[in-house]
Every structure is written in structure tokens, then in C-alpha cells.
Write a structure and sequence with these properties.
This protein has about 190 residues and is of the alpha+beta class. The chain has five helices and eight strands. About 35% of the residues lie in helices and about 10% in strands. One of its GO terms (molecular function) is oxidoreductase activity, acting on paired donors, with incorporation or reduction of molecular oxygen.
Length: about 190
């Protein structure tokens, strides 16, 4: 959101239009917030938690596009490369949730394939939706400013020495979108909800 304030503004506008300014999203709102869902899909496409997917063992000899794969071979689906395939995604390095308005643009199978798909898919989708939608509903994220008031443009980098994608830390600012939103946040904390 820090590098894409237009995306943040569009997501916040959808939240305001659908829910109003003084309401936090719930799971029942997921179907009514397509831009938020597309934003999450785009986030997962560019930064999959498991860039190489979950390893699978081939249960029988197989041939995939001319490659022989022996029974017992461990196979990884390179989600990082799939999500950056310019044959599937125009301008693959650009964060663009609107790309999913085209029904022919594939959704990256970040939870795996077939019978071995991640059993926590629904929990992960729901918790990610609530977290992202709630943060965007209440806060505005922006670039941090230096002592001269100039914006500091963060370098978004990932840790590349593991099987799990880890975003490197960077400085940014976030603040409640308005006094009304601050009261909503404070009220939730005070009530323990």
C-alpha cells in the first residue's frame, strides 16, 4: 500500500461504499468486497508464502511436457516463477489487483493442487481477508519522511535463503484514517472485542 497509494485508496473506497465508514468488515462481507479479494490474490501472486509450494512425491512414473519423472521423486511447483510468468500476467512485476477483472487471468494455486491441497486453505483465506480488510478499513499506510520532510521510498526486499518467503523490514508510517476511525479502533480495544 505504501508504494501503491492508488490501490489503497481504491480498496478503502470499496470498503466505505459497501460497509460505511464506521463498520469493520466481517467474513460475511467477503463476497461483497471483490477488489479486496483481488488485492489479496495479487499480494499472494507477487509474494507467495511458500515460493516453491509444498513438496509432493510422485507416486508413479510420469512424464510432464517431455520430462520423465520417476516414482518417488520430490516435485516442487515454483510458485514464485509461475506468478511472474509474462505469458500469464501482463507486467508481472507490477502490483495490479485489477488484472483479475479479466476472467482469463489465472489465480495462482498458492495452496497447492488436487487432493494434496493445503487443508488450511479456508482458514488462511478467511484470516487474511479479515486482517487486510480491517487494516485498510481503519488505517492509512504511507511512506515515512526524513528529517527534511522528504518521503523515504522503501526498498521492498525478501529473504531468499529459505523455503518460506520473509519480507525484510522497512520503515513506513500508518495512522487512523480519521478521528472516526480512531474512535472505532479505541472502542474495539476498550471493549475487548
Amino acid at each position: 500500500m505504501i508504494l501503491n497509494p492508488d490501490v489503497q485508496a481504491k480498496a478503502q473506497q470499496e470498503l466505505d461504499d459497501v460497509l460505511g465508514r464506521a463498520t469493520l468488515p466481517s467474513l460475511s462481507d467477503m463476497g461483497r468486497l471483490p477488489y479486496i479479494k483481488n488485492l489479496i490474490e495479487e499480494l499472494w501472486r507477487l509474494y507467495p508464502v511458500f515460493p516453491l509450494g509444498i513438496p509432493h512425491a510422485c507416486f508413479q512414473d510420469d512424464n510432464y511436457r517431455g520430462y520423465d519423472i520417476e516414482k518417488g521423486t520430490t516435485v516442487f511447483g515454483n510458485l514464485w516463477a509461475m506468478g511472474r510468468d509474462s505469458r500469464q500476467y501482463m507486467d508481472p512485476e507490477v502490483f495490479n489487483p485489477d488484472r483479475y477483472l479479466d476472467p482469463d487471468v489465472p489465480r495462482l494455486p498458492i495452496f497447492g493442487w488436487g487432493r494434496r491441497k493445503c487443508p488450511g486453505i479456508h482458514f488462511a483465506e478467511a484470516s487474511t481477508f479479515i486482517m487486510i480488510a480491517s487494516l485498510l478499513a481503519t488505517f492509512t499506510f504511507s511512506k515515512k519522511r526524513d528529517s527534511n520532510g522528504q518521503e523515504i521510498i522503501p526498498q521492498i526486499e525478501v529473504e531468499r535463503n529459505s523455503l518460506v518467503l520473509e519480507l525484510m523490514s522497512f520503515d513506513f508510517e500508518f495512522k487512523p484514517r480519521s478521528e472516526e476511525h480512531r474512535q472505532l479502533i479505541v472502542g474495539i480495544n476498550a471493549n475487548g472485542e
